[in-house]
Amino acid sequence: MDFRLTQEQEMIVDTTRTFTERELIPHEEQVEREGQVSPDLVKQIKQRSIDAGLYACNMPTELGGGGLNSFDTTLVDREFGVTSYALHYVVARPSNILRACKDQQVAEYLIPTITGERVECLAMSEPDAGSDVRGMKCTATQDGKDWIINGTKHFISHADMADYVILFAASGEEKTSKGIKKKITGFLVDFETKGCERIKGYNCVSNNGYHNMIINFDNCRVPGANVLGELHNGFDAANEWLGATRLQVAAVCVGRARRALKLAVEWAATREQFGQQIGKFQGVSFKLADMQIQLDAAELLTLRAAFNDAAGNFSDTEVAMAKVFSSEMCQFVTDEAIQIFGGMGLMDELPLERMWRDTRVDRIWDGTSEIQRHIISRALLRPHGG
Ligand SMILES: Cc1cc2nc3c(=O)[nH]c(=O)nc-3n(C[C@H](O)[C@H](O)[C@H](O)COP(=O)(O)OP(=O)(O)OC[C@H]3O[C@@H](n4cnc5c(N)ncnc54)[C@H](O)[C@@H]3O)c2cc1C
After folding, report:
1. Which CATH superfamily groups domain 236-384?
2. Spatial CB neighbours of 58, under 8 Å, sequence gap ≥ 6
3. Which CATH number is associated with domain 7-94?
4. Ligand 1 touching residue 157 (CB < 6 A)
5. What's the pLDDT tens digit per position in 54-88?
6. Which class is domain 119-228?
7. Domains 7-94 and 236-384 fall in the same CATH topology
8. pTM exceeds cut of 0.90
9. pLDDT at 386 over 80
10. Which residue's CA is the nearest one to ligand 1's atom 7?
């Protein structure tokens, strides 16, 4: 495994870093204050990221995307991670699931999402089905060539900015040796469809300005042509997405922790108490050492998972390790950085308290830390009949 960057990859990192410094970081305070990225700012970031070639960088070049593989997109996410997710989300990374689009779906959904004319969100979670996604109650019932959707999804990120949803619903049941199992199918549903209603979601401690919504489906009729991927095999498509988003979480955490550590080192080297730099007290300097060790370990796990994925050897265990370790590392690093700053660390004059809040959700969304550990331990025990 060789993580040395090619010249092209160095350029990708430089472009993303410069873009983040010029186009995103200057708006952090405003987004925190207003609790939203204003529509004008969304427009500006979107256009400038399209101009910089960063928009939809994960999508194939022949369809208008940036053509980056998962290692390269991990480098991009690591750079974006230093700033608020509410801001860098706008530089959209269309869901990998959309690669399953076929026939007219390509022209109607995939290509306009790559060009930025349309925005998607993804709805899997329900009030009674979080980690246990297969326990979902939202149903899709066939009616002639159409499907009728009923149920509720919640926690749906950026549904307020999207104009369609990639929806997962229970489309049937099958008998297995372990009992009755729900069959899950993916659908592309326009928000303007009758019977599909978005309502305000919950206020979240993390990522101020990045909103979630509740989506209700009440006899919502969806044409059969809008089935995404294979009928009853929605989990295959969903796994594509989950692998990519878990890697994204890991890379963002590495970027965010890098910034927190940099701030903490600068402060430890300049703040004086008892007549000397606080960094000269072992109680502070050893914190810095531990933060660096954790950060590097998280980064290596993340790059390994991305490297192998890019080489065609995707491993859900490696991705789970990267996600769980990086998100817990980032919580540790941002927390220790605040401790090193003392009282000022908790004040909103500095970005640290935001980063500390923002990273809390990383241990929950896209599969909790417990679910990641379940994936890792299951792989260890499976050969032993576990
Ligand atoms: C801000 C935010 C945005 C989100 N955006 C989206 C989105 O866009 N689309 C979407 O579909 N979902 C989204 N989610 C949902 C997210 O993926 C779920 O919150 C997550 O999967 C956990 O589900 P839950 O919250 O229902 O917790 P639960 O599944 O109820 O879990 C509660 C606790 O039990 C533990 N637990 C559950 N099962 C096990 C087990 N087998 N072993 C050990 N421990 C277990 C969990 O780890 C957790 O600690 C979002 C969530 C948040 C908070």
Report:
1. Butyryl-CoA Dehydrogenase, subunit A, domain 3 (1.20.140.10)
2. 65, 66, 68, 70, 73, 93, 94, 96, 244
3. 1.10.540.10
4. yes
5. 999 999 999 999 999 999 999 999 999 999 999 99
6. mainly beta
7. no
8. yes
9. no
10. 156
The answer to whether the CB of 358 falls within 8 A of the CB of 88 is: no
Token pair of 385 as six digits: 């009949």
Pocket test for ligand 1, best of 131, 203, 252, 376 (most atoms within 8 A of CB): 131
What's the pLDDT at 88? Answer: 93
- Is the CB of 364 inside a 6 Å radius of any atom of ligand 1? yes
**Rounded distance, CA 64 to CA 327, Å?**
32
Q: If we measure between CA atoms, which residue out of 365, 366, 378 comes closest to residue 317?
A: 378
Cβ neighbours around 194 below 10 Å, total: 9
Asked whether residue 237 carries a pLDDT value surpassing 80, the answer given is no
297-338 pLDDT per residue, tens: 999 999 999 999 999 999 999 999 999 999 999 999 999 999
Q: How far is the CA of 252 from the centre of ligand 1 (A)?
A: 19
Question: What does the domain layout of the chain look like in residue ranges?
Answer: 7-94, 119-228, 236-384
Question: Ligand 1 centroid vs 155 CA: distance in angstroms?
Answer: 9
The model's pLDDT over 282-295, given as tens digits with 9 standing for 90+, comes to 999 999 999 999 99
**All residues at 6 or more sequence positions from 10 whose CB lies less than 8 Å from its CB, including other chains:** none
